[in-house]
Amino acid sequence: MDFVIVGPEKTGTGWIDSALRACLPNALPKVTKETFYLDRLHHLGPRWHASLYSGEATLRGEVSPSYFARPIARERLAAINPDARVVVMLRDPFARMASHLLHIMRRGAGSLRHRDLGLNPALWSEARESSLYQRHGNAWRAAFGAERVLFLRYGNIRRDPARMLQAVCRHIGAPAEINPIWAREFSATRVFESATPTAPGLAQLAYRVSRSLQAVGATRLVEAARRSGVRKLFERSGESVKGARAELERRLRAEENFDRDIEFGEEALGVGLDEWRTGRMLAPIASVPAEAANRAESPW
Prior knowledge:
This protein has 15 helices and 6 strands. The radius of gyration is 19 Å and the shape is globular. Helix 3 packs parallel to helix 6, helix 4 packs across helix 12 and helix 6 (133-144) packs across helix 13 (259-269). By secondary structure, the chain is of the alpha/beta class. It has helices at 13-23, 45-51, 71-80, 93-105, 121-129, 133-144, 156-159, 161-172, 180-188, 200-215, 219-227, 239-255, 259-269, 274-278, 290-295; strands at 3-7, 61-63, 85-90, 149-153, 196-197, 235-236. Helix content is 50%, strand content 8%. The protein has a single domain, classed as P-loop containing nucleotide triphosphate hydrolases (Rossmann fold), CATH 3.40.50. The strands form 2 sheets. It has a 4-stranded parallel sheet with strand order 2-1-3-4, with helices on both faces.
């Protein structure tokens, strides 16, 4: 394993996964985005992990946001390849935690009708832990060396996707000049919205079944079900969910403290992050003229 984009959750890792697949065929698992091999599916062994890839490639890696806040993932990656390259995405920790909590609700847990979302303390702790950038960012640096851990800013996916993707490629050892028109058009079509289930009981059952299947190595079956789009028939997204996320973020800003993590982000990224303290939004994606987008068929 030459590189891992370790997240954390809700920091644009879905976009990075899709973009890398367009640029680096065979570098990522063919079957799935997240293998969970370094945390909860390690018992399936290296042969199972290798079977998830196909074709010839000079680099092998994965995009697994669950790894960021899990020490066991760092330990296992260091044992496999102490020279592995690591990419960490940093987002406003309050906004990230709010999105993470809604993502947990997608499993069928909780309800938007409750102020605490009806989630137990362990699930709140899970979402909070992944916003502790100072603790886990320094741990990744200690495990692999600062020069092998690249920190990138989530907001730059919108502001300059070509530069973002180019930075990832160069860090993992695949230097590339990315076509900026292609990158912006690609980003505009890769928007992953928050959603909540309309049938929580069914969502809980589906989540438990998928976890059970993954535990015995049936990753292909789980991914086939996910890609079928059936889940979307039992979910709602749009303005109601966006409103709930905004309200949740306001609550988190009043109740949580991520001062040290924002300071760490400023040091790691080399920029001021006052908007993370205030919640001020970044600019939207710049529009791409249709005729230019039609010419941008390749990432290169």
